[in-house]
Inverse folding.
């Protein structure tokens, strides 16, 4: 019986590999007709085989593939702990929430405490601060790195400052020397939002290993994908336990799904005002959620992880080709620069239209989209000016001059591994056509 089952599984998986080759053949590129996407998933039969392999187990919550991915991803990053979750946004929520745990004693974040962050970013870096009744304190960014202006950190400090939460914007590491030194000097927690920066390094060390906690995303746009998914990385086992508690309904128990009595005294705890012996699996120490992902998603991630180094190299190569190809347009555009000491793992190629250019950002975006070259703005621009944040308690520590510049002048284009040299050549050609058209019209 078992032998027959395994033979059927092997046949199914072999057919899946054949199906993938037939269903998703390579596509040619026709300039002006084929799209140049901003991002997307890059996969082959390996991902599809593991996805189906997992589904044949019919173990639908986190399981063997999740356990494998957590171990391999933590090892790849060079950290002790990795906790898989259902999205990068959830990872950010759990990273902040974990720091509110009473189990951290005097270091816990409490309502009204301040967290220094950026307004020029993605909402779900800031939202967990608000959702935990903390106060975001906004400082500016530098151009053209689009990362935290570390010179404003001291200006943002107050007696209520307890943590720092910054993203490595579009895969470009922020100034970790300055931020780490500031955090150490004032005994502050540091969370690195590394969702766009997997594989980036700062002075030879991977980002995501500098802070107390770091987050990643496995949405299709990111460096590897599970469709949806994310993770929280950390060095301290206590922080892993807290993150898992908030991820798993807030329960005090740390047993993996399908496991019982890992602690050896499941019916011998006395916590809160519960009677002694109340089932530890149903004892809750935090106000938590259910933010686990499925093992099918993790299976895709296991296959993707084998390709990660190649994906990062392709992104860096695509970025370099764009940087060189657009160099002669710097009188019109501010081109991106890496932070000193950093080797980015580029998520995108940010550009700013100079104020004195003979065309506007809207004109550039319109022309590119007309040529089927996808663009994006730099996330929320200035979140303080977004409608969702109009009545949210916050503090602006310094003028957000560059953040407003980002809101008004900056956009980005793709560098993901699915973009081919022919696509890049077409993108560069299209950018050169924009000032020529503007000068002809003028």
């Amino acid at each position: 019986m078992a032998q027959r089952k395994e033979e059927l599984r092997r046949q199914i998986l072999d057919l899946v590999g054949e199906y993938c080759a037939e269903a998703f053949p390579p596509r040619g590129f026709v300039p002006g007709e084929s799209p140049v996407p901003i991002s997307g998933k890059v996969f082959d039969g390996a991902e599809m085989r593991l996805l189906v392999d997992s589904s044949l187990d019919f173990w639908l919550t986190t399981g063997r593939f999740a356990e494998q991915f957590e171990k391999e991803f933590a090892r790849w990053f060079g950290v002790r702990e990795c906790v898989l979750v259902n999205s990068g946004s959830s990872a950010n929520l759990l990273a902040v929430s974990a720091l509110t745990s009473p189990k951290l004693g005097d270091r816990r974040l409490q309502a009204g405490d301040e967290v220094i962050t950026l307004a020029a970013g993605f909402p779900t870096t800031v939202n967990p601060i608000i959702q935990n009744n903390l106060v975001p304190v906004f400082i500016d960014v530098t151009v053209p790195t689009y990362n935290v202006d570390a010179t404003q950190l001291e200006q943002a400090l107050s007696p209520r400052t307890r943590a720092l939460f910054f993203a490595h914007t579009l895969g470009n590491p922020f100034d970790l020397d300055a931020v780490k030194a500031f955090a150490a000097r004032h005994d502050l927690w540091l969370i690195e939002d590394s969702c766009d920066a997997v594989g980036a390094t700062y002075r030879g060390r991977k980002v995501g290993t500098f802070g107390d906690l770091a987050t990643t995303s496995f949405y299709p746009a990111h460096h590897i994908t599970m469709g949806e998914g994310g993770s929280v990385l950390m060095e301290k086992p206590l922080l892993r336990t807290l993150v898992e508690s908030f991820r798993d309904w807030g329960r005090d128990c740390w047993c993996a799904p399908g496991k019982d009595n890992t602690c050896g005294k499941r019916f011998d705890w006395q916590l809160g005002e519960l009677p002694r012996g109340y089932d530890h699996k149903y004892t809750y120490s935090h106000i938590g959620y259910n933010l686990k992902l499925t093992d099918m998603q993790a299976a895709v991630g296991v296959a993707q992880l084998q390709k990660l180094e190649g994906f990062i190299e392709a992104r860096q190569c695509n970025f370099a080709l764009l940087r060189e190809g657009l160099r002669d347009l710097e009188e019109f555009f501010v081109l991106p620069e890496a932070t000193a000491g950093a080797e980015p793992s580029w998520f995108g190629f940010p550009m700013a239209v100079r104020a004195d250019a003979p065309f506007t950002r809207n004109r550039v975006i319109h022309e590119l989209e007309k040529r089927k070259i996808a663009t994006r703005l730099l996330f929320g621009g200035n979140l303080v000016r977004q409608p969702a944040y109009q009545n949210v308690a916050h503090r602006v520590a310094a003028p957000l001059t560059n953040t407003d510049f980002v809101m008004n002048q900056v956009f980005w284009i793709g560098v993901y591994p699915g973009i081919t040299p022919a696509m890049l050549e077409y993108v560069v050609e299209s950018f050169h056509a924009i000032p020529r058209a503007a000068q002809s019209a003028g």
